[in-house]
Amino acid sequence: MVVIVLLVSLGVLAVAFIAVLLSVARERRQLQPRAESVALGAVTNFFDTLGIGSFAPTTAWLKLRRLIPDGYLPATLNSGHALPTIAQALIFINLVRVDPILLATCIAAAVLGATLGAPLVVRLPVRVVQGIVGIALLIAAVLYALANLGLLPAGGDALGLSQPLFAIAVAVHFLLGALMTFGIGLYAPSLILLSLLGLNPTAAFPIMMGACAFLMPVSGFRFVRSERIDLRVVIGLAIGGIPAVLLAAYVVKSLPLAGLRWGVVVVVLYAAALLLRAALQPLQAASTVETTVAVAQKTQ
Predict the structure, then answer these.
(1) Model confidence over 81-115: pLDDT tens digits?
(2) Among 284, 295, 273, 298, residue whose Cα is nearest residue 63
(3) In the chain, what are the domain boundaries?
(4) The model's pTM
(5) Tens digits of per-residue pLDDT, 150-203?
């Protein structure tokens, strides 16, 4: 019963988010997606479904290509990947067994954290956002490297958690939900946490995907109305991402990803260095760069 409620709720949330996104994009005349962002959404969400994660590689590409100002990153990531992540959640919640109470409670905690975090993100100075996202990329690079070296926890075979461990999982997902609104991906830390607590890693997939699938559109309702977002990129990520999720989940299913992760490590580290340098540069220079990029975006 819990699973059915979650699946129906996700469907309703997806429809509501699409309606708001298209309405705001129409008002701002940003309905036409960027072709590059469609391709980016397809690639990142394809590998996201297979376990690579989408936030770090998307951030790296957007930063390296200077497609959007740095201050737009959290809103664009959460809004652009919301619908592909909902598609992932609908698939994995339906197919993978896990304690439904643990699933629903972790999702609720992450959504609550995101609800409290989103208003803060849209008000933060751009340099603070640059610094937070830069540090998040460094952490992501470390996690990718640890995964390749086989140093991440293998996990147990449990499909549920005892009461103390259950409480830890819920509390940490509240924090991860808040961090998601800053553009810090939830997948890797959620998978590591649940594996350390003894949960079967496969059972962690519907939890981490379900948490993101609910919290991203919930925070996205606020993000799409903010000034620090490019809805052409958002729509492109969604259009490219949804069919890529279906292809990865039902056709490809698995790939040898170690080599790809090492490539992602290099690109992510470079993007992190650029963001942290921008965050630490003199205030006047940072403002000038941000203003120049924003003006360029509006003229395209």
Answers:
(1) 999 999 999 999 988 889 999 999 999 999 999 88
(2) 273
(3) 2-299
(4) 0.79
(5) 776 666 778 889 889 999 999 999 988 988 888 777 887 888 888 888 888 888
Structure-block tokens of residue 157: 């075979």
pLDDT of residue 252: 80
Average pLDDT of the chain, as a whole number: 85
